[in-house]
Amino acid sequence: MTSGNTRTLLHTIEGPNGSAALYEVVSPGQAQPSYEVDFGGTSTTFKSMGEAYIEAGVMSGTPT
C-alpha cells in the first residue's frame, strides 16, 4: 500500500484453503477505488470489487 492511501476491510472469506481478506483502497487523486485481496501473505490488486470478491472465494476455496 502506498503512503496516503486509505485501506478499508470490506469482508473476510473463510474457506478450506485459509482466509482471504478483501479491502477497498482509495488513493488521493484517483476517481475510483481499487480493491485488494490478501491471502497467504500476498496481496493482489483488482479494478472491480466483483472481480476481487470472486477471486477471494477461489483463493480461500469457498466459491462466492
Topology of helices and strands:
Layout: E1 6-15, E2 18-26, E3 34-39, E4 42-46, H1 49-60
Antiparallel strand pairs: 1-2, 2-3, 3-4
Poorly predicted runs are none
Share of helical residues: 10-25%
The tally of strands reads 4
What is the average per-residue confidence, as pLDDT, rounded to a whole number? 93
Order of helices and strands: EEEEH
Shape, principal axes of CA atoms: elongated
**Span from first to last CA?**
25 Å
Describe the structure.
This protein is α+β, with helices and mostly antiparallel strands and 64 residues long. 19% of the residues lie in helices and 47% in strands. It contains one helix and four strands, in the order ββββα. Strands 1-2-3-4 form a four-stranded antiparallel beta sheet, covered by helices on one side. Strand 1 and strand 2 form a beta hairpin. The chain starts with 5 loop residues before the first strand and ends with a helix. The relative contact order is 0.27.
Features:
47% strand; 64 residues; single chain; 1 helix; alpha+beta
